[in-house]
Amino acid sequence: MSTSETMTDTFAPLARHEFAVLMTYRASGEAVPTTVWFANGDDGTISITTRRTAGKIKRVRNDGCVTLAPSSGWRDTAYLVLTGAGVAATVAPALVAGLAVRFPNVLTIPTPNTARVISPWTLARLPGHHVVESYFDAAILPRPPLGLVLVAPCGFNSLNKLAGGIADTLALSVVAEAIGRGTPVVVAIACNAALWAHPRAPESATTLRRWGWSVLDPVRDGEHVGLAPVAAILAAVDTQLGG
Predict the structure, then answer these.
(1) Are both 155 and 60 inside the same structural domain?
(2) Domain range spanning residue 54?
(3) 3-state SS record for the chain
(4) What is the tally of structural domains in the chain?
(5) 150-178 confidence digits (pLDDT tens)
(6) pLDDT given for residue 107 in this prediction
(7) pTM above 0.85, yes or no
(8) Do 67 and 81 fall within a single domain?
(9) % pLDDT > 70, the chain
(10) Domain end position, chosen among 29, 45, 71
């Protein structure tokens, strides 16, 4: 179920924007930024639609003080797409923490196979992000906010699906839509030596680069081939941010 909260005041600074950053506050006073889509009314009001059970609605009911500011585009939100690559459980905490210091809003979207290597409960308990597991999650309704997309670790299967234009899960749909929306994508590939030697893997990486995505190949450490270091992945994110 959805509810529409209509706010009356002067919203001229939002007139040319499609998304805004809604700041609500926890009982502790901690600010919680959320990128939201809004509609401008003819009477000078704006409307924001979300579920009645959304966290921001609960915070507004507890503390009516909110701050609304124009979104600065995709730089307000980061999507972390986790796949079922075995290293996901190891790197997820550092990736979430790294994105949280760079973006006000971090949305983590696991592929269905991710639960095989990290439990949804463990993932949800990591601070600094919100886990999205449904197309009906309030954080991506009525449409996902613009944002940088980081696919890390990107396993062999997800890599080839992305290069083939396959969007058969929520996670891959968000990545695929980034092309049409013109928002940056960073892909950090996690394949073992045998899979990376498969001709399809480097071909898929080349395809993604041709589309303008930033792609980090697996790195070799002796006989082992695996995901690039988290520091290198976050450095690629910084490059997209212009830092």
Answers:
(1) no
(2) 2-71
(3) CEEEEEEECCCHHHCCCCEEEEEEECCCCCEEEEEEECEECCCCEEEEEEECCCHHHHHHHHCCCCEEEECCHHHHEEEEEECCCCCHHHHHHHHHHHHHCCCCEEEEEECHHHHHCCCHHHHHCCCCCEECCCCCCHHHCCCCCCCEEEEEEECHHHHHHHHCCCCCCHHHHHHHHHHHHCCCEEEEECCCHHHHHCCHHHHHHHHHHHCCCEEECCEEECCEEECCCHHHHHHHHHHHHCC
(4) 2
(5) 999 999 999 999 999 999 999 999 999 98
(6) 97
(7) no
(8) no
(9) 90
(10) 71
